[in-house]
Amino acid sequence: MADSRLNIPPFAQSCLQVTGNVWFAAQTHPFVQALADGSLPVENFRFYQMQDARYLEAFTDACSIISARCVQPDDKLWFIDAAKLALVVERQLHTEYGKQLGYDATDIAQLTLTPNNLAYQNHMLVTCHRGALLEAIAVLTPCPWLYTELGQRLQTQLGSPSDDHPYVNWLRTYADDGFVAYTNTLLAYLEAAAQESGEQTRQRAQQAFLTSVRYEWMFWQQAWTMQPWPV
């Protein structure tokens, strides 16, 4: 059985400290609490799932950019596989919910991104193109790390969800030991890049990480409010 524990290296710990209470706020957003206890209205979950499917396309692009910047073939391959994970494994989750909630790939492709989603994608992709390798890895680390920690915490607090929980597949996906192993490897890559970087680069990476955590909170918020464009 895979190790179910998250291993947090020193630089990741420093990133977490920079976030202050933002990390906790993202972990405990009302959307998350309602999703966990099953009271989240289905229309909010549908809104979230469709926006998330489009976000994962940008996450895949970010992983592909990082792969191209890696020197060692094994490192390139891991980030290629990470891109594939976002498209294949998590897309399967979206596809299954799409059958239940009444949307398909065409609906997702035609979706108007929320302001929060669009801003998060731009932040991630611009950082991957323009920042140092450490900044590029740091900008995408909060998403899988936060989801993995959330999945583990909810499982500890609530136990394994019952088969009749409306969001059981979502809860099981992010509590899975394989997802923990994936996140641990990403954190190890973050640490290796930090060890090869100067202090200014490390500080920029910490800020990129913090901004992504803020966007994670905002991603829950845009689904909680079903955010429209104001004009």
The name CATH uses for the topology is Heme Oxygenase, Chain A
Q: What is the CA-atom radius of gyration, in angstroms?
A: 17 Å
Beta-strand fraction estimate:
under 5%
Secondary structure: helix percent? over 70%
DSSP strand tally: 0
Order of helices and strands: HHHHHHHHHHHH
Largest sheet: none
Mean pLDDT comes to: 93
What is the overall silhouette?
globular
Q: Which structural class fits the helix and strand makeup?
A: mainly alpha
* CATH architecture classification name: Up-down Bundle
- DSSP summary: helix tally: 12
Ends apart, CA distance between termini: 51 Å
Query: What number of structural domains do the residues give?
Result: 1
CATH class reads: Mainly Alpha
Uncertain segments are: none
Task: Break the fold down into its secondary structure elements and pairings.
Blueprint: H1 10-18, H2 22-27, H3 30-37, H4 42-69, H5 73-101, H6 105-109, H7 115-130, H8 133-140, H9 142-158, H10 168-175, H11 177-195, H12 199-225
Helix pairs in contact: 1-12, 4-5, 4-7, 4-8, 4-12, 7-8, 7-12, 8-11, 8-12, 9-10, 9-11
